[in-house]
């Protein structure tokens, strides 16, 4: 499975992909308001070059998309969405294979039961809760 990428420093492409993601989020009832706020913060950070060590990028293909936070010593899957007709066909597994190439710790925070099962099945270990206590934090050491 191949993926395309767009980084937050590629402002026009990132904004275009953000619009597509927000349309998906609205269509599939997938955290639209949260994503809208998230994109406002990310795009604002990129435009004003607030913190050069914080980089976000979108990984996508015809099966779905994921929004990543890339830090010096870890990468975090912030959001992941797979189109209904492509679920359980390897999108997340292929994404992990790609992320492991970076040789960084992989972090995923979630409260979704389907995702919790997928993380445990792929070797992620529970490392507690997020700061706001709303999600469980899982880590995969690479």
Q: Helix and strand layout, with pairings?
A:
Layout: E1 4-7, H1 11-27, H2 32-48, E2 55-61, E3 64-70, E4 74-82, H3 91-100, E5 105-110, H4 113-121, E6 125-129, E7 136-140
Parallel strand pairs: 4-5
Antiparallel strand pairs: 1-2, 2-3, 3-4, 5-7, 6-7
Helix pairs in contact: 1-2
Please explain how this structure is put together.
- With 142 residues, this protein is of the alpha+beta class.
- The protein has one domain (4-140): Aminopeptidase.
- Helix content is 37%, strand content 30%.
- The protein contains four helices and seven strands; from the N terminus they run βααβββαβαββ.
- It has helices at 11-27, 32-48, 91-100, 113-121; strands at 4-7, 55-61, 64-70, 74-82, 105-110, 125-129, 136-140.
- It has a seven-stranded mixed beta sheet, sandwiched between helices.
- β4 (74-82), α3 and β5 (105-110) form a beta-alpha-beta unit.
- The longest helix is centred in the first third of the chain and has 17 residues, at 11-27.
